[in-house]
């Protein structure tokens, strides 16, 4: 067979892009493939066995619809693009996620889709619940909280809360992160699949979880109601309230659902009950509602039957996988605990080693300081020894000087004693001179008094002599040539001689007194000079004694 023949027999293909919640894949499909062939290929690529929850969704003319499994892909009304894009999403939701979602990949895909619906506000969630759900999402992504690794700001690039919640409260991104981190820190030890399951368990209790809404009308003219289809049944809502249904039809109470053009009929199991009819704007919407009703009803009935062999095997495998994962998680937890203990022990050893190194460094520094101190002390000892020798020499010299000073002091004492004796003698002489001076002064005073008395007596005698002369010889004035007058003159001259002699004695006495006074003054001056010399010598001796005492 030629190569050209092989090329002719190769089937024609077209490209398909499959977009999951967190990834994209491209496949080459044969032209004859049906929707189920493409769906099975995607499930095999994902390793998904719980295929009944999922479907391939595409958008045509602004309306979301699901790829039919029993028709060829190219025969359906799909977008004319290359490659053709389909979204692999959950089409039906479980009633109890913990019991029905068996595979980890199934849980993960549901977790991502429900999380996206909450963030896009397709499912309403209270602010408190969004913070708790965000903490489980962070636990699933980052693992256990570690304050050393998960520093403030590590959630800055993660979308964790709906914009409606962020607008509703005037909180900064740091405040929201602090609130989420507070819950996140409490989830320590929870594995990723467990955190995702806890997220879904909280989300499945929300009013809008798993509900597909469609606008309908009770008559052909007005669209004033919403019809919701979920895993539990069909619900009728008012146009402004998607939380509380006005009317609900559980799958167990519905006998039949029929669809004809734009009309949808719900027949209750109770034949006496009223039949409800609703109208939609388009036939495609009615068909989509009818398709979702059939799928959800089939799953509802399937849950209440005995599980098939395949489901039983999957549940057994899921239990084994959970047990294995539990043991693995426990082992990992033990290993993590041991590793943390080892790290703590390592840190303690490193701290201890660092402490010992620091102590060793300090000891080396202390040793170096001790060596330096020893060298310094040796130098100081040598200097002290030299100083001791010098001090000993100085001590010997001081001792000699002391002996010399003692001899000098003895001499000084003797000289001082002699000087004191001389001073005492000088003081006695001075006292004697003072007494002698007083005595001489008194004698001079007496002599002066005697002199005054003598002069007064002389004056009186002269006066008396003159008086006697005038009385006895009054004629002597008239007769000067009388001869007896010569004898009187002789007598008078004789008296004058006596008076002159007396005057001479007085002058001599005055001269002697003056001479003695001058001698006294001269002696006093000499004695004062001698006293000054003695005082100077005594003062010099005192200074020498004081200096000798200070030097000693």
Automatic annotation (TrEMBL):
Subcellular location field: Cell membrane; Cell projection; Cytoplasm; Nucleus
Gene3D superfamilies: 1.20.5.450, 1.20.80.10, Phosphatidylinositol 3-kinase Catalytic Subunit, Chain A, domain 1, Pleckstrin-homology domain (PH domain)/Phosphotyrosine-binding domain (PTB)
Positions in coiled-coil regions: 311-464, 517-544
Membrane-protein topology: Peripheral membrane protein
Main location per the UniProt record: membrane
Annotated residues for binding of a 1,2-diacyl-sn-glycero-3-phospho-(1D-myo-inositol): 68-71, 287
Keywords of this entry: Cell membrane, Cell projection, Coiled coil, Cytoplasm, Membrane, Nucleus, Phosphoprotein, Ubl conjugation
A Pfam family reported for this protein in Swiss-Prot or TrEMBL: ERM_helical
Domain FERM: 14-304
Superkingdom of origin organism: Eukaryota
CDD domains, alphabetized: FERM_B-lobe (cd14473), FERM_C_ERM (cd13194)
Molecular function via GO: actin binding
Cellular component, GO annotation: cell projection; cytoplasm; nucleus; plasma membrane
The name this protein goes by in its record: Merlin
Organism of this sequence: Chloropsis hardwickii
Higher taxonomy: Eukaryota, Metazoa, Chordata, Craniata, Vertebrata
């Amino acid at each position: 067979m030629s190569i050209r023949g092989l090329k002719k027999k190769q089937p024609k293909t077209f490209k398909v892009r499959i977009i999951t919640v967190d990834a994209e894949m491209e496949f080459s499909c044969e032209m004859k493939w049906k929707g189920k062939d493409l769906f099975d290929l995607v499930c095999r690529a994902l390793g998904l066995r719980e295929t009944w929850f999922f479907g391939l969704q595409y958008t045509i003319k602004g309306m979301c619809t699901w790829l039919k499994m029993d028709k060829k892909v190219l025969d359906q009304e799909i977008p004319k693009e290359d490659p053709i894009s389909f979204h692999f999403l959950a089409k039906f939701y479980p009633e109890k996620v913990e019991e029905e979602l068996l595979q980890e990949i199934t849980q993960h895909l549901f977790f991502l889709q429900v999380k996206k619906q909450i963030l896009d506000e397709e499912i309403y969630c209270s602010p408190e619940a969004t913070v708790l759900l965000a903490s489980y999402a962070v636990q699933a992504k980052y693992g256990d909280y570690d304050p050393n690794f998960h520093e403030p700001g590590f959630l800055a690039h993660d979308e964790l809360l709906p914009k409606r919640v962020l607008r509703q409260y005037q909180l900064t991104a740091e405040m929201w992160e602090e609130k989420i981190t507070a819950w996140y820190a409490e989830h320590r030890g929870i594995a990723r699949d467990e955190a995702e399951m806890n997220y879904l368990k909280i989300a499945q209790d929300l009013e809008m979880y798993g509900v597909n809404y469609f606008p309908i009308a009770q008559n052909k003219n007005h669209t004033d109601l919403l019809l919701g289809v979920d895993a539990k049944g069909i619900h009728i809502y008012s146009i402004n309230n998607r939380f509380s249904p006005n009317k609900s039809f559980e799958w167990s109470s519905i006998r039949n659902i029929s669809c004809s053009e734009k009309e949808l009929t719900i027949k209750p199991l109770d034949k006496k009950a009223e039949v409800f009819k609703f109208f939609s704007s388009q036939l495609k919407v009615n068909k989509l509602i009818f398709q979702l009703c059939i799928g959800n009803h089939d799953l509802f009935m399937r849950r209440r039957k005995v599980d098939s062999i395949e489901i039983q095997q999957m549940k057994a495998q899921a239990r084994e996988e959970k047990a294995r994962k539990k043991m693995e998680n426990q082992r990992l937890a033990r290993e993590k605990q041991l590793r943390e203990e080892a790290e703590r022990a390592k840190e303690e050893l490193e701290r201890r080693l660092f402490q010992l190194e620091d102590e060793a460094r300090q000891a080396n520094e202390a040793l170096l300081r001790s060596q330096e101190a020893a060298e310094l002390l040796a130098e100081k000892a040598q200097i002290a020894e030299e100083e001791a020798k010098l001090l000993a020499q100085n001590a010997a010299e001081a001792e000699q000087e002391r002996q010399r000073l003692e001899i000098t002091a003895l001499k000084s004492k003797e000289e001082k004693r002699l000087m004191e004796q001389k001073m005492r003698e000088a003081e006695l002489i001075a006292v004697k001179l003072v007494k002698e001076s007083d005595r001489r002064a008194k004698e001079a005073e007496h002599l002066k008094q005697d002199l005054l008395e003598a002069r007064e007596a002389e004056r009186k005698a002269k006066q008396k002599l003159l008086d006697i002369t005038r009385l006895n010889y009054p004629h002597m004035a008239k007769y000067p040539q009388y001869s007896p007058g010569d004898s009187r003159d002789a007598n008078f001259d004789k008296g004058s001689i006596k008076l002159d002699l007396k005057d001479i004695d007085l002058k001599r006495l005055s001269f002697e007194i003056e001479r003695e006074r001058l001698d006294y003054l001269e002696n006093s001056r000499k004695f004062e000079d001698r006293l000054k010399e003695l005082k100077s010598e005594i003062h010099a001796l005192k200074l020498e004694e004081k200096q000798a005492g200070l030097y000693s």
